[in-house]
Structures are given as structure tokens and as C-alpha cells.
Design brief:
Largest sheet of chain C: 7 strands, mixed
Helix content of chain C: 25-40%
CATH class of the largest domain in chain B: Alpha Beta
Number of helices of chain B: 12
Structural class of chain B: alpha/beta
Shape of chain B: globular
CATH architecture of the largest domain in chain B: 3-Layer(aba) Sandwich
Strand order of the largest sheet of chain C: 1-7-6-5-4-2-3
Order of helices and strands of chain B: HHHHHEHEHEEHEEEEEHHEEHEEH
CATH superfamily of the largest domain in chain B: Type I PLP-dependent aspartate aminotransferase-like (Major domain)
CATH topology of the largest domain in chain C: Aspartate Aminotransferase, domain 2
Shape of chain C: globular
Strand content of chain B: 5-15%
Oligomer: heterotrimer
Number of domains of chain B: 2
Strand content of chain C: 5-15%
Order of helices and strands of chain C: HHHHHEHEHEHEHEEEEEHEHEEHHHH
Strand order of the largest sheet of chain B: 1-7-6-5-4-2-3
Low-confidence stretches of chain B: none
Distance between the termini of chain C: 67 Å
Distance between the termini of chain B: 56 Å
Radius of gyration of chain C: 27 Å
């Protein structure tokens, strides 16, 4: 049973055991426009919560993707490097960015749940 | 006033329509005590005739290159630009158009930029080129910044053969950014040991070829040592015609090639506007500064061109941009493209042969002047001579005899035993008569 | 004799053509291939004689291989580039309402003057005794710029506006370091509405950027600045008039806050065209301001450059200007090219600066004179306000219907629920024969549309522009989306796929590869 949490910068983290799958939300990809390029970190990189973990670029915008929690990057999604459009097509599925081995699960409680995030998005638009 | 279409009737009518009595009401946000009531105490408007007279008088007080035997180079070169070039760059749609941000109505600009980028990539022997920089010197500084980004190091090593102005620009920028620079001593004979300066802290090595003193440099070994240490080789040129005669920097292993394109299509213009050429390998393209034109399709499937990879640029990345650059050197790049089109490979190579042949001839004549030593083993269209006494005085005396006989190195470098050196350039514009006059005048002043 | 050469002289057929042409040309609107598709490496449009035999002195570095550069004869070259030119919009073709770009008329006298051999055919390093006229010209232009701005010095060498910003901010950094405060003052205040070059420049010089929020009235407020001011602040970078087209009414107070706090005031002079001869930036308290000669002083935009960005400086910053600069010694002028032993910050470019643009700018300035320059600013502001007044009932003004300067800013509130975006609206302007206005800048309003007509537009031209925008606006409000969504329909190209261009960049021509047997079998 996996749980998904959201940040105010529109990243999601889907927790599966000790590992969180991180990407950007559907709202974020819509705001960005067609994704043309992503810059992913190396596997093994240690990130602090809120630190820059990746970069996502569209034609007209560039955004940092911040780590929702602290931990170690254990895997990155090479597929989106070759096919950045996957981030637009399937942001929660095939368009994932990286997997973090979560250092401290307590950090997850600081993030928004599904309902809170939807409310947040309504206030953004 | 001939450039202002509104008449007094127009103005008062427009103001009335807006319910405004006096145009100064539209300037109400300006602090009232600072709003100027009268025109500033400066000359009043002039018609074309008066302006032309006034500027013509100033122009007449300069000695144009075409009017005398002319052998001045050292970073800018006198070449013949075909009449076609100047006619085409003055077409309204090129001269008075804006940056091609609306590609549907800018395909003229975008297509020539695509052609320009291809020409520059081919000349330099590299994969991709941008749509031009302001000039060779600022391009070199940008190349150093790019190398720092790619290698995540901050120490640049500058060859002693790099144009002194270019080196100064890099040093100024590095000082402001807190980066390190090592500049080797002025290297007249191309004998410096630059390899020993390259180690694991080096971000980039910047070598000019042909160098400031005219020596063509083999970059192969330098490239190898750079790559073995994770550093980038930046090759610089100031005379783009040399690329038709000499092995390309790309073929010798350069990672970035940057230089001055003024020789093709652009007049001397007392130092500007010029056009910087910038090329690199495909793997570094996202770190490249400046504008880039790319090919794509329109909604009807027709081939078209757009500015692309803009997310590197200031208007999007703002404080994270690859550089703060906003403009390229558009019209100068167009002039380059047109002139290069007229020349073609066959013409360009022949032009290079003429340049070299003329320089070879001149070097032989100068070597025959008592007291003069030609210092270069090899050169393209420019070389360095040593003269008795102070070079700067010799050049002034030649000028008094209406011969512009080169640049005293001391104009750009101080001390360090360069006071008796003159850099002499010889292009296709110089005739046998010019060379004979130069040699005769030199004999007289020495 | 009966004349049997008659043929019809009135049109018979009024049907609209819908067939494709063989060439894909449509009358005068022509398709043009790439140089690399029509030229050949053995063709040249220049006559050069092969030199007599000579001994090569190239060492062992001769280039043997083919470069791959195609050539064309002169007639083919003419045709190729003339056809390309016909695909471009230009100031000479029509109104260019680009806010903050100042697309005014480019006088042709400027071009003649710049081409005088005494200006164009002189080398930057020929003896200074042979270029006194050129140095005098630069000195004269510098004098005008200092007088128009009431500033003490001007650095002439920056090659573009952004380069000028770099120069001005670098001088500020040098001044701060000379006071021993370099480690302390590391922050630069930049409004949210600033042009992207401002934060990019500050960052390039090693400053940290702190954002100043815009006030609800579109101006920067002294209180907002006061809150952010501190001993760690080196400078503020303000554009005046600002990027919303408004004069910063409290600019003097803001300058005082910075100065009292030990900081400097950098002014982005991109919008100088609104105030030349009306108010002097020096009187407002600035320490440095770059001037875009290609905006305010009519040097041509040339499809993207070259520009020129001289920077006026206060007496406090003058010692930190870069080399070279001109020094007068009696009736002789000399370039100071050596920074050794001075506080000068160094050199920002090879040689001396954009002489070609100096000639053009001085030609413009002399033509206008102080009275003409003042009139030009008044006309620029009048034209922009006229556009504002005549569109205010249809299009939304984010800061209310108050007088603007030389440009007027609309946002996209008025397009809400129409399904038409700022982008679509702009593209539909192309079909009407207008270059779009500046879109989506400044970032502080949603869907920004920034219109700057300049003083070069006649009333008739303005009226047609206004009526066209009214027609488009009413069409959008009526929900006639098809006019907008697919626009432009009539330009040489329809909308282009920028995603494709960025995902798989093709940045040069490469020779097409012969199709392999495997590829052929697969088809």
C-alpha cells in the first residue's frame, strides 16, 4: 500500500517501503509546458530535504526539482532523459525522476496529503 | 523635424481627445522641480547637409587604410569586402528588423543564422556553433566561463601568445567572479612550456593560433594533456581567414573554438562592431552561451527555423543563466555569411593563399633591411619583426611618411623586452608597390 | 487595317486560388533553400588571381582536407539573400510595438555617415595621431550623453546593453572593494519586474540577488526598499521608467535610502527614450546607467545586433570605469589603454568599443538637437498614452488607467473565459500585418502585453493600429477563437514547433546520408 505526499513546489513522493519515488505533479507539468530536457543527479548522491535534486526544462521555462525528503538517490529514470515528453504524458507513472532511500520518515508528515494538495492547487490557479 | 511625423495639429488633437491640456501632464510622475522646462543648452536640430558637413570634417581628420600602404593587424584585418555585401546588409528587412523572437515573420534572419552557424562549425572543425557573440575577446571570456561550468573548476591558464586585450578581458572577468587565472609570459617565439601548467585543478587552457605574434600553433599535445587532466582546451583565433590555410582547431582536439570573424564581411570600423565566432562539441551544447538557431517544422509540416535552447539565456534563467548576454552581432554575422557565400571554399582557400603569399613576399623584403629581423619560423598573414631602437617611434615615423607599417607590441604589452617589436600584417589588399613603399620608408627611418 | 493583337484587359475570373504551385512559391512569396543545398564548393562569386609560386611558411600545419563551404556566384548570392530578406518583418515595413525595445525609425543618414571611409576604414591600433577625428567624435558623443543625463563620466566601450550593465555593476563592485567593504556588501536588490539581464548580470559578478516586490500600483515603494536595505546591500538595480511603462515616482527617495545605507544605485536605461530632454537621471540620484544606443538613439537592430551600451557614471564611480577611455591634452586626444597603477577595473573588450554605432548615434543626436530630442520624447510618451486611452475600454490595465510613459502595459484579465491567450492574440496581429507587441514580460502581471509605438508613428499609422487591435479585441471577446488559435495564417510560416526544436536540436546543416539497404527494405 503506497502513500503519496506533495510539496509546495509541486513535487510528489510515492512511498514504497523505505524508498520514495519522486517526480513532478500533473499541475506542474501543465504549468511548464512541453518538457524538452531533464538533468538528473547521479545515483548515490545524498540530498537534504529541500535541496536541488534535478532540473526540468521546457521551451520557455526551467525549474529546479527539490528533494521532498532527505536521503540517498538510489535510482534515476534514464527514460525521461531520452524521452522528456514522458513527464508531460504520465508524470505520476512513467515520468518519474528519481528514487530516494528515505533517511527519516518523520519528514513525510511535514508534506501535504492528496486532499491538502488538491486544495493547494486550487488556490494556485 | 524630419523624423517626427506628428504635426502640431496632431498633437493638440490627441491631447484634447485624452482630456489633457499640456503634454507635461503626462509627465506628472516626474518630480515637478526636476522636470526640464526648456531644451538643454546644447546645439539645436540640424538638417542632413549640416550634419554631413560636421561629421565629414571629423572623418577627414582620420587616415583611412585604403589611402596609404597599410600593414596593421594584431587582431583586426583589412580585407576587401565585395560590394554585394554592403548592399544586402542595408536591405530594410535585414537592417531594421528585430531579434527573431516571432519566427513566423523572421525566417529570413533565422535561415541566415542557421547557414552562419553551419559555416562557423565547418571552418572551426567543430560540431555546433552559436549565432555569434559581440566579438572575439568577449567570446573568449565566455568560453572560459563555460569551461568553469563544465569542469566545475575555476582556474584558467592563458598562453603567452593570446592577444593581450583578450587576456585582459579574461582577467578582468575572472577577478570579478573570483576565479583564478594564470597568464604565461609574452611568447614571441612560440616556445612557452604550457604543458607543465596543466593539472587536475585546471579548468581550461586558452591558446591562440596563429598567435598574437603570428605563429601557427600545434594544439594536439596540449589537447591531449588537457583531456588527460579533465580540462578543456579553448582555441582562439583573431584572423578567421587563417582557418582556410591551417589545420582546424577542432581537428587538433579543441573543445571550444572562439575567435573574431571581422575579416570576413566587416570593415575595420575602428574596433567595432565586430562579430565573435563560437563553436563547441555536441556534448557541451547546453552550456554554450549566446543565441542558437535550430531547425524545426511548422504547423503545415514545412521546414522552418527558430531560436532554441533559450532556457540557457537570461530572459528565462535570470540569475542562473549561462551568461547575461542579450544580443548577438546579427548584422555583422549576416555580412560574414554573405561574404563567405560569395567566396565559397574555392574562393576562400585562394584568398588565404594570396594572403600567405603576400606575407611571405613581405617577410623576405623586410628580412633584407639592415637591422630588421623577422622572428617567426612560420606564419600565415602576419609576423613579428625586431627593429633597432624603439618600435613605437619607428611606427610613428613611418606614419609621418604616410605608411601605416604595423603595430608596435608595446602598444598592448608593457615592459618585458617587447619595446623593439612590430607586428606586421599583409593581406590581399597590399600591392607590390605598397610593399616597396613600406620597405623604402623603413630604410629611411631606421 | 484591323488590329488583331487584342487580348482581354479586364479580369474575368474572381475565384480564389486553392491549388498548390509546382515551386511551392506563391507569387512574390518565395520558398528558398539553404545555401548548402544550392551552393557548391567549387563555385565562387569573387574574382581572385592565383598568386605566383611561393614557398610556404605555414610549417607543418597546412589544412589539407575539404572544409565543405559552398559558394555562389554574385547573381545567385543576391537572389538567395534578397529572397530571405523578403520573409522578414521590419521597422521599414510597419509598426513594431515591442515594449522596451524602442523600435523607432533608423535614419539612413546614419548609415551614410558610418560608411565614410574616415570612420569605417580606420584600424583601432593605427597610430593615434592618424585617428584624431575618430577620437573627437567619441568625445563629442560622450559629452552629449553626459549632458543629457547630468552625469560626470561615461564608459564608452561596452558592446551592448547587457555588457553595459556588467560594466556599471562591476564599477560598483570595484568601488565597494576599494572602501574595504567587498566581503560585507554582497547583495543586490532587483525588482521582480526587472529584465532578466539585471539578475543575470548581478549573479555573474558574484552578487546575491534579493527580490524587491512590486507595489500594487506598479511602482517600487521606498518602504519595500527600506525593509530590504541593510549593511550587506551593495546596490539596487532599478529600471526607470520601469518595465511596466511607469515612471518610478519615488525614485529620489529610493536613491537616498541606498546612499544613506552606503549602497549604490544602478539604473537600467533601456527606457530612456521616454525622458531624454525631459528629466536627467543624474538629478534623480543614480550612480550608473547604461544607455542602449540601439534603442534610444536609433542605431539599427539589425535582426538582433550589433548594439552598444555606454554607461554614464557618477563622480564616485568614475575612477572605476574600464579602459580604454579618452583623455584630452590641449588639442590632442589620446586613448588611455593601460590600467596599471590606477583603480580602473580592467578591460571589458578588445579595442575601443562600437565606433560604428557611435557615428550613427551622433548623427541621430546632431540631427535632432536638444529641441528635437525633447520633442521626440514627448511624442513617444504622447503616442503611448494615446494608444492607452483608445484601448482602455476594451483591454485591461493592471495598474489602472493612469498616464504611462513611452509604453503601455496591458494584462490578459480582459481575455478571461474567451479561450484566447496573449500568445494567440499576438499571433493574430501577424495576420493583420503587425509584429506582435512584447508578450509575457514583465513577469509581474499575467499574460503581459507591452506596447511601445515610439515617436516614429504618424497619427494615421497609430489610428490604424488602434482600430486593428480594437477589431481583434472585440473578435476575441465575441469568442471567435479560430481567428486566433491557428494564427498566423498568412505569414511565410505558420506556428513553429519549438518543442521539437528543443528536444532534438538540429543546429546546423549536415549532408543527408544515403539511405541504407536496411532502411529501404523497411519502407
Amino acid at each position: 500500500m503506497s502513500e503519496t505526499r506533495y510539496t509546495k513546489d509541486h513535487e510528489y513522493i510515492r512511498v514504497e517501503g523505505d524508498v520514495g519515488i519522486v517526480g513532478i505533479t500533473d499541475f506542474a507539468q501543465g504549468q511548464l509546458g512541453d518538457v524538452v530536457f531533464v538533468e538528473l543527479p547521479q545515483a548515490g548522491k545524498v540530498v537534504a530535504k529541500g535541496a536541488e535534486a534535478a532540473v526540468v526544462e521546457s521551451v520557455k521555462a526551467a525549474s529546479e526539482v527539490y528533494a521532498p525528503v532527505s536521503g540517498e538517490v538510489v535510482d534515476v529514470n534514464g527514460a525521461i532523459e531520452g524521452q522528456p515528453g514522458l513527464v508531460n504524458e504520465d508524470p505520476a507513472g512513467k515520468g518519474w525522476f528519481l528514487k530516494i532511500k528515505i533517511k527519516d520518515k518523520a519528514e513525510l508528515s511535514e508534506l501535504m496529503d492528496e486532499a491538502a494538495y488538491q486544495a493547494f492547487v486550487s488556490s494556485c490557479s | 523635424m524630419r523624423y517626427l511625423p506628428l504635426s502640431e495639429t496632431d498633437r493638440s488633437g490627441m491631447l484634447a481627445r485624452m482630456g489633457v491640456t499640456h503634454v507635461d501632464e503626462l509627465f506628472a510622475d516626474v518630480p515637478a522641480h526636476l522636470l526640464l522646462k526648456d531644451p538643454l543648452d546644447l546645439p539645436r536640430r540640424k538638417g542632413e547637409l549640416d550634419v554631413a558637413r560636421q561629421l565629414g570634417r571629423l572623418a577627414a581628420r582620420n587616415v583611412p587604410a585604403s589611402s596609404v600602404p597599410f600593414f596593421v593587424g594584431a587582431g583586426a584585418y583589412k580585407h576587401h569586402v565585395p560590394a554585394t555585401v554592403d548592399h544586402l546588409v542595408q536591405r530594410s528587412e535585414f537592417l531594421t528588423s528585430y531579434t527573431p523572437y516571432q519566427p513566423e515573420i523572421s525566417q529570413g534572419t533565422l535561415q541566415y543564422l542557421f547557414e552562419f552557424q553551419t559555416q562557423v562549425a565547418l571552418l572551426t572543425g567543430m560540431d555546433v556553433a552559436n549565432a555569434s557573440m559581440y566579438d572575439g575577446s568577449t567570446g573568449t571570456a565566455e568560453a572560459v566561463l563555460m569551461a568553469h561550468r563544465v569542469t566545475r573548476r575555476k582556474k584558467a591558464v592563458l598562453s603567452g601568445g593570446l592577444h593581450p586585450h583578450y587576456a585582459e578581458v579574461v582577467r578582468t572577468q575572472s577577478q570579478l567572479a573570483g576565479d583564478d587565472v594564470v597568464t604565461l609570459d609574452a611568447d614571441v617565439r612560440a616556445s612557452e612550456d604550457i604543458l607543465s601548467q596543466i593539472d587536475a585543478t585546471t579548468s581550461c587552457v586558452v591558446v591562440q593560433t596563429p598567435d598574437f605574434f603570428g605563429n601557427p600553433r600545434d594544439l594536439t599535445e596540449i589537447a591531449e594533456k588537457c583531456h588527460a587532466n579533465g580540462a578543456l582546451l579553448i582555441a582562439v583565433f583573431t584572423e578567421v581567414v587563417s582557418l582556410a590555410a591551417l589545420k582546424s582547431p577542432g581537428a587538433m582536439g579543441a573543445d571550444i573554438v572562439v575567435g573574431e570573424g571581422q575579416s570576413i564581411g566587416n570593415a575595420l570600423n575602428f574596433g567595432g562592431p565586430y562579430v565573435g565566432l563560437f563553436a563547441t562539441r555536441t556534448k557541451y551544447v547546453r552550456q554554450m552561451p549566446g543565441r542558437l538557431c535550430g531547425e524545426t517544422l511548422d504547423a503545415e509540416g514545412r521546414r522552418g527555423f527558430v531560436l532554441t535552447l533559450s532556457t540557457r539565456e537570461q530572459h528565462i534563467r535570470r540569475d542562473k543563466a549561462t551568461s547575461n548576454i542579450c544580443t548577438n552581432s546579427g548584422l555583422c554575422a549576416l555580412a560574414f555569411t554573405i561574404h563567405m557565400t560569395l567566396l565559397g571554399e574555392a574562393g576562400l582557400k585562394r584568398l588565404a593563399r594570396i594572403n600567405h603569399a603576400n606575407a611571405v613576399q613581405l617577410s623576405g623584403l623586410l628580412a633584407g633591411v639592415k637591422g630588421v629581423e623577422v622572428l617567426n619560423q612560420s606564419f600565415f598573414n602576419e609576423f613579428t619583426i625586431r627593429v633597432p631602437g624603439k618600435a613605437a617611434d619607428v611606427v610613428e615615423k613611418l606614419a609621418a611618411k604616410s605608411v601605416l607599417g604595423g603595430v608596435p607590441v608595446s602598444r598592448l604589452l608593457s615592459g618585458k623586452g617587447v619595446d623593439d617589436l612590430i607586428i606586421v600584417a599583409n593581406t590581399e589588399v597590399n600591392t607590390d608597390e605598397d610593399r616597396a613603399t613600406f620597405v623604402a620608408a623603413l630604410k629611411e627611418v631606421l | 487595317m484591323l488590329n488583331n493583337q487584342g487580348r482581354p484587359t479586364t479580369p474575368k475570373d474572381s475565384a480564389v486560388a486553392s491549388h498548390a504551385t509546382f515551386t511551392r512559391n506563391r507569387g512574390l512569396q518565395m520558398e528558398e533553400a539553404l545555401l548548402f543545398e544550392i551552393g557548391r564548393t567549387d563555385v565562387t562569386g569573387v574574382d581572385l588571381d592565383e598568386p605566383a609560386a611561393f614557398v610556404s611558411r605555414l610549417g607543418n600545419l597546412a589544412r589539407d582536407e575539404e572544409i565543405g563551404l559552398p559558394g555562389l556566384s554574385e547573381p545567385e548570392t543576391m537572389r538567395h539573400f534578397v529572397r530571405l530578406s523578403q520573409k522578414n518583418y521590419a521597422i521599414d515595413s510597419g509598426l513594431y510595438p515591442l515594449g522596451s525595445c524602442t523600435m523607432k525609425h533608423n535614419p539612413r543618414l546614419n548609415e551614410s555617415m558610418a560608411r565614410l571611409p574616415g570612420f569605417s576604414d580606420i584600424h583601432p591600433l593605427q597610430p593615434q595621431s592618424t585617428v584624431q577625428g575618430a577620437l573627437t567624435l567619441i568625445e563629442e558623443l560622450a559629452g552629449w550623453l553626459m549632458t543629457l543625463t547630468n552625469m560626470d563620466a561615461v564608459a564608452m566601450s561596452p558592446k551592448a546593453g547587457a555588457h553595459g550593465e556588467y560594466c556599471g555593476m562591476a564599477a560598483i563592485k570595484a568601488a565597494i572593494e576599494a572602501k574595504g567593504e567587498g566581503a560585507l556588501r554582497k547583495v543586490v536588490l532587483v525588482p521582480e519586474s526587472a529584465h532578466g539581464t539585471n539578475p543575470a548580470t548581478a549573479a555573474a559578478i558574484g552578487f546575491e540577488v534579493r527580490s524587491v516586490p512590486a507595489g500594487e500600483d506598479g511602482n517600487v515603494h521606498p518602504d519595500a526598499v527600506r525593509t530590504l536595505m541593510g549593511p550587506d546591500v551593495a546596490a539596487i538595480m532599478l529600471t526607470n521608467p520601469n518595465t511596466c511603462g511607469l515612471f518610478e515616482r519615488q525614485i529620489v527617495e529610493i536613491a537616498n535610502i541606498l546612499h544613506e545605507g552606503g549602497g549604490y544605485f544602478y539604473c537600467d536605461g533601456a527606457n530612456f527614450n521616454a525622458i531624454v530632454g525631459k528629466v536627467r537621471p543624474g538629478d534623480l540620484g543614480i550612480d550608473a546607467m547604461h544607455i542602449n544606443l540601439h534603442k534610444t538613439f536609433s542605431t539599427p537592430h539589425g535582426g538582433g545586433g550589433p548594439g552598444a551600451g555606454p554607461v554614464v557614471l557618477s563622480s564616485r564611480l568614475a575612477p572605476f570605469a574600464p579602459v580604454p577611455f579618452i583623455k584630452r591634452d590641449g588639442d590632442k586626444l589620446a586613448l588611455v589603454e593601460d590600467a596599471i597603477g590606477t583603480q580602473v577595473l580592467g578591460r571589458l573588450t578588445a579595442f575601443h568599443g562600437q565606433m560604428g554605432m557611435f557615428v550613427r548615434a551622433l548623427s541621430y543626436i546632431l540631427s535632432h538637437g536638444s529641441d528635437g530630442l525633447k520633442q521626440a520624447s514627448e511624442d513617444a510618451v504622447l503616442n503611448a498614452n494615446y494608444v492607452r486611452a483608445r484601448l482602455a475600454d476594451l483591454m485591461s490595465l493592471p495598474f489602472g488607467n493612469r498616464p504611462c510613459m513611452h509604453e503601455v502595459l496591458f494584462d490578459d484579465t480582459w481575455l478571461k473565459d474567451t479561450g484566447v491567450t496573449t500568445l494567440d492574440f499576438a499571433k493574430a496581429m501577424i495576420d493583420e500585418g503587425y509584429h506582435p507587441m512584447t508578450m509575457y514580460f514583465p513577469l509581474v502581471v499575467h499574460g503581459a502585453m507591452l506596447i511601445e509605438p515610439t515617436e516614429s508613428e504618424s497619427l494615421a499609422s497609430l489610428e490604424l493600429f488602434i482600430m486593428t487591435l480594437r477589431d481583434l479585441a472585440m473578435s476575441a471577446l465575441r469568442g471567435e477563437k479560430t481567428r486566433f488559435e491557428g494564427a498566423p495564417f498568412y505569414a511565410p510560416r505558420r506556428r513553429l514547433d519549438e518543442t521539437r526544436a528543443a528536444r532534438a536540436p538540429v543546429l546546423r546543416w549536415t549532408p543527408p546520408q544515403p539511405i541504407t539497404d536496411a532502411q529501404q527494405a523497411a519502407e
